[in-house]
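Internal QA ticket QA-208
Title: Verify multi-chain structure generation after dependency bump
Assignee: T.L.

Test input:
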Amino acid sequence: MLEAPVLITVSLLYLGLLFAVAWWGDKRADQGRSLIASPTIYALSMAVYCTTWTFYGSVGRAAVSGIGFLPVYLGPTLVMALGWIVLLKMIRIVKANRITSIADFISSRYGKSHGLGGLVTIIAVVGIIPYISLQLKAVSNTVSLLFSYPEIVMPHRSATMSVGADISFYIALILAAFTIVFGTRHLDATERHEGMVAAIALESVVKLVAFLAVGVFVTYGVFDGFGDIFDRVAQQQELQKLMTAIPSGAGYSGWFSLVVLSGLAFLFLPRQFQVAVVENVNEAHLKRAAWLFPLYLLLINIFVLPIALGGLLHFAGQGVDADTLVLTFPMSQRQEGLTLLAFIGGLSSATGMVIVETIALSTMVCNDLVMPMLLRHKRATLAESKDLSGLLLAIRRGAIVVILLLGYLYFRLAGEAYALVAIGLISFSAVAQFAPALIGGMYWRGGTRGGALAGLTAGFLVWAYTLLLPSFAKSGWLPGDFLAQGFFGIELLRPQQLFGLSGIDEISHCLFWSFFANIGAYVAVSLLRPPMVAEATQATLFVDALSETGQGGAVLWRGRAQVSDLQELVGRFLGPNRAQSAFAGFARRNGRDGDSKPEADAKLVQFAESLLAGAIGSASARVMVASVAKEEPLSIEEVMHILDEASQLRTYSRELERKSRELTAATLELREANERLQELDRVKDDIMSSVTHELRTPLTSIRAFSELLHDDPKMHLADRTRFLGLIVSEAERLTRLINQTLDLAKIESGRADWNGCELDLKEVIEQSIAATSQLVHEKEAHIEVDLPDNLPLILADRDRLIQVMLNLLSNAVKFLTPGSGLIRVTLSRRDDGLQVSVADNGPGIRPEDQQLVFEKFRQVGDTMTAKPSGTGLGLPISRRIVEHFGGELWVESVPGEGATFRFTLPFPPVQPPAAAPAA
Amino acid sequence: MHRRILAGDRLIAAFLIGCVLFNYPVLSLFDRPSEIFGIPLVYAYIFTAWALVIALMAWAVERRFK
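Actual output:
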């Protein structure tokens, strides 16, 4: 099933799936229901950090240096711990200034400088090309491997192979085409690509699953667990050296350099900057990502060692390149499904990197390299065109193709001499050069454009000299002499022992010298002269990004411009329709609907500039806006004054917001209090209307019997006595009804008197039973009791509890069949309190009535045959009493077999009895 | 606000702990040819320390304050 057509079909289907996800993500973003608004997706998109370097290269690295593959994952872990500080600030700055890329960031910080943006772009492109070639190498190696399945033939490429016969050339072209379709379908008004992020997150899941699957298969399928692999390795003398942290001789300094380098690269690689900063939806996502992303790194690395060591054991002497083990292991075991999964995982890690990296780089090339050149040399031609968005897209697409072809070229020239990880480290060292200018720019006001230019140039040159040129030399493309003898035969200039520094690995060496030159030049040149206005303004906005001053909103522009000119300008880059709707939206938000002054105010000018900055970068946007407006420069004092004022204004408005929030809260409380009062009123009315109805029944009988007595003076004595008896009992019922109604009203309104004291429930129950013994006796019933001694005391009101017990007992008695009645009263202990149950063997209660009995004035039972004799308030009152003391009262019953009323009372919380609820 | 500062400080603490645990000289203490549960000591150490730092970060940001 691994023939070429199958492979190609599966790969294309997978790319199609990614495309569909991206399309869906973009669609959801347009609808305002973002697909990627979750910290998990954010963390997964950051995992674009894991490329084929991780997927294939880590195993290769581990096979030669044991745990030496790990420091590049520890660095990002540490940086994520600081993410809440550093990344947060970067995100704030990027959002406030509509920054599109890392070149834009640096250029914007140092006064929106074209030169600086261009330099950063060049460094990024040159630095990243080896990294892209790494992806091409990994994919083309795996494809050639699969083509020879089931044989395992290491891909061999001779330098004389024609480009047309080289698989990796076609792979580069396919990736370019895919990226173009993927990332530059249309020019966004914003710099964000939600669909791309969704697809990247999916790829991160796929590569993790694929790698774990291979890892589990190797560890537990081929071998017998971790212990088994390590045991076998322990028996091989030559593998012993892999069991310590620094077998390669690089020393702990090499380890430390890699931790630092990877941490910096994690922040400053164009693709990481894109997903972590530019594409961030919500800065709160940083928090969960702070541990989710390192966790991802940990998971994807767990099986690296078992696969590497297992490979060394399993393929000993067969010449299998350890960089391919993730694929060759399942191949050698004829696991076709797993092989395909591994291949797709590797493809995911390569495409994810290539897509995001080239999109980020192409944006930089377009905004910070090509546009400035066009603006300088072809301003007139540009001015003629009405809509330049097509041109922008074409530039970006061209840049993608060129970057991928350069990657291919590097692969042809130098790719064979190095393992995957070594190639990647060259790129890491290049982007680390951004650190001084970028981090310095975020925390130091004194950094100037000159300083940044000098530092970046110096660092870049040293990097090229100590790492890039040697990589060409080692692959035979440059004469190798200068490595050994130094340029012009001067030994001190040997690229990898610069000024005689030796004894450390080449990465540490490059890192030290390049940072020495970079930081030194940056600081020294910055200190030569004070910052100019534009630099100082941007410095304040960047350095104070987390405080009041830096949060945008301040209007730092003075001059005259026409609305129509601005709108036309924006329209030329974003398309006229988009410009129209953006300007209309701005007018609406600022309450200027229908206001058609031709003169634009400073706020609108800044809005137009930020719109443009999203499309062509801040430096070009500045130049374009300046070209249609008459500007008056602001002095540094004026700028600081405006910034101060803006920050004060924001403080006031925040104060105002706080006050208004407090007011809202107070209003809400008032409303709630009012509602509570109304509710009480309603309860009272409710009871009144039920009560009057219930009172009428006994009153009516009393009146009827009284009238009979009154109207018939000659009535027999026996009848007279009977009627009087009825009148007395109805009057008693009336009194009871009124008492209980008052009682319930009191309880419900919270005005009842409660006397809490510790009491022995057993005693209460015995007293209640004694009080009802007469009733029980009349019905000729029996009471069985089961009341254990020495139960803990509980906290309740004695009289109220007796009221509850009397109620339950008299209820039970009421429904007993005379002569055969039996009541069981049980007291038992439960985990958190005591439980009392009163069971009878009467007719029971139907399930549908079991809740009704607790409602006010509801007497269940067959009202046709048995006249209700209670008030219908006993159970509701009892339930409220029990609930007041934190317990529950309920009934269990099977019709025909009696009913059991149970209630619980919790033990008092452990505290002095004085604090018991008493009111 | 207070809560946010506390979480930030805890993350910085996690960063510092990680810096110490992941590097020389602490790393070298475990860089010995011995095994724990059949796994070479330094492997077991670095993965454990890593997991610990991640757990610390998770605790710092996810814990609900009372």
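Spot checks passed. Helices of chain B lie at 2-21, 26-29, 41-62.
Status: verified.
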